[in-house]
Design a protein that fits this description.
About 30% of the residues lie in helices and about 25% in strands. With about 525 residues, the protein is α+β, with helices and mostly antiparallel strands. A 7-stranded mixed sheet has the order 4-8-9-23-6-5-7, with no helix packed on it. Strands 3-12-1-14-13 form a 5-stranded antiparallel sheet. A hairpin with a 2-residue loop joins strand 24 and strand 25.
């Protein structure tokens, strides 16, 4: 089997509805299911060939979309280094007090599938969604968006007393990248690549007419050799135990045709249908332990306009441990390439064999993405407009900082209204001329009585005269975290410390306005008293 990989960039929120949440909400999976990708490609195939419905007896149609040797895998998050992430194993635990508070922090993660004595005293599942190897284990989590909607009457076009319930969508947010994978025959590679590259726009998931599902296809690539976990099978044949990790949900049936589920009281037991399925490839197995979860999956058939039956599954990330058996690299490749269980064409049943070998390791959050998704402007008129917008937004941020400081600051002590009015008048004059030295000159040349009032008046236990002198000599001192005063519009950036702000003395102007506002506030408070 050959491999086609491609990236899916969400332009709108995407709703791949799962069976989570309350009845008045639709909660999306944290990935794009392979069944959804297959359905969208079928739709593109039908449009390309002007078909109203598929001929299921057609050999090409069966081979492309319904043959078990053509598999549409789930699209998982792309890391900042453009690597496809994978679900976090359910055997990974941490100390319950360990938290990843920021990108510079690390936590110790323990893999309980490896039977060692070193474990945390109060273990807790790590709780992250995806991970990849980027200079160590790095956790990734999808961004989500919750939108509130109200149901409307289809005939009236608005909500009514009968049709007006409030409901919400918890969807995958726009602006994220996922990598999808198609495993197929070599003869189908060019056809599927051409089908994917026919148009960059594709719509996925539900509520597409309500502003959901617009996605773009990028980076369609062909791989002659591809491995989902990027570790050659030849390096995983001599382990103490056989460990099977689910890279996607797994659907199994027992000998009576019932779906295999794990009762809560037997969470660490390995289902017999799974053992039977594995023994077809690797021989007799002796179970040791497992770390599992179960879930319900469904779907929606657009042709029928009906939801698909709900099916219980073993959850992605589940880990099963067996006594050591003699494995060959061919057996590992067979399990990982073909998968196990039902609906493998839709991405179910993906497994990794002897994947993790470290009992404990350090894990972190990813560094912030360095690439900007802002558009690059080519016309000078566009650049000028973007610069003006950035400047106005920067002024808005400065205004917010100013108002915040005015609310905090208060002049305490005895100072007359005449001295406060004099301060406001000189600060206003300095603001109009752009010369803050006028205020400093005033403070240096005050009569002794007036100077004493400016010394006795306090702002946060510092004399008013000293505080004003400090502000004017270092206009950034009152702003606090001025690193946040940065705005970007397209490829035009403005900040309080850049050349534009220095040339226009932006910090000095807002400092003079602060002095005027604090003096005016003190005058009003004295009048009200």
């Amino acid at each position: 089997m050959k491999t086609i990989t491609f990236s899916l960039h969400t332009q709108q929120p995407l709703l791949a509805t799962s069976f989570q949440g309350d009845p008045n909400s639709d909660v999306s999976y944290n990935y794009i299911p392979g069944s959804m990708i297959r359905g969208a490609i079928i739709g593109r195939y039908m449009k390309e060939h002007h078909l109203s419905e598929l001929d299921l007896n057609n050999y090409v149609v069966k081979r492309l979309f319904f043959d078990k040797n053509t598999c549409y895998l789930n699209a998982y998050l792309l890391s900042h280094k453009q690597k496809r992430t994978l679900p976090v194993p359910l055997s990974w635990f941490k100390d319950k007090d360990a938290e990843l508070s920021d990108v510079s922090s690390h936590i110790t993660v323990y893999d309980f599938s490896i039977d060692k004595e070193e474990k945390p005293e109060t273990p807790k599942f790590v709780g992250e969604s995806f991970w990849t190897e980027e200079g160590g284990v790095t956790f990734y989590k999808e961004k989500r968006r919750i939108n509130i909607h109200n149901r409307r009457d289809r005939k009236k076009g608005r909500s009514s007393q009968e049709e007006g319930e409030i409901f919400c969508y918890d969807a995958i947010d726009a602006g994220q990248a996922f990598q999808a994978v198609i495993l197929c025959h070599e003869a189908d590679v060019e056809f599927l690549k051409n089908l994917l590259q026919k148009s960059g726009d594709i719509w996925l998931g539900g509520s597409q007419s309500a502003g959901y599902g617009h996605t773009k296809i990028y980076d369609v690539n062909y791989h002659d050799v591809w491995n989902e976990i990027s570790i050659p099978a030849t390096k995983r044949i001599n382990y103490e135990c056989l460990t099977i990790t689910l890279l996607s949900d797994l659907i199994l049936r027992d000998e009576w045709g019932q779906y295999a589920v794990i009762p809560p009281s037997t969470q660490h037991q390995i289902p017999a249908p799974l053992i039977k399925e594995l023994e077809k490839v690797v021989g007799i197995l002796k179970p040791q332990r497992s770390f599992t979860g179960s879930n319900l999956v469904g779907g929606f058939n657009r042709k029928w306009g009906l939801p698909l039956p709900q099916v219980p599954v073993l959850k992605a990330g589940s880990v099963f441990v067996f006594d050591n058996v003699s494995l060959t690299s061919e057996q590992i490749q067979q399990l990982e390439t073909l998968g196990i269980g039902e609906r493998r064409v839709e991405g179910f049943g993906r497994v990794a064999v002897n994947w993790i070998e470290e009992q404990h390791f350090q894990a972190k959050k990813p560094e912030p993405a360095k690439l900007s998704n802002q558009p690059v402007l080519k016309l000078q008129a566009s650049k000028t407009l973007a610069a003006q917008m950035a400047e106005r937004l920067l002024h808005q941020k400065m205004e917010q900082s100013l108002q915040k400081q005015i609310g905090y600051l208060k002049i305490e002590g005895q100072i007359s209204n005449s001295q406060l009015s004099r301060l406001q008048m000189v600060a206003r004059q300095a603001l109009s001329t752009g010369d803050g030295d006028l205020v400093l000159s005033l403070l240096k040349n005050l009569p002794s009585n007036a100077s004493g009032q400016f010394e006795r008046a306090k702002i946060r236990d510092v004399s008013l005269k000293q505080k004003i002198d400090e502000w004017l000599n270092n206009p950034m001192s009152w702003i606090g975290d001025y690193q946040n005063l940065k705005v970007r519009v397209a490829d035009e950036e403005r900040s309080i410390t850049d050349e534009f702000s220095r040339r226009n003395k932006l910090a000095e102007k807002y400092t003079l306005r602060l002095i005027m506002a604090v003096a005016k506030k003190a005058t009003k408070e004295k009048t009200n008293d």
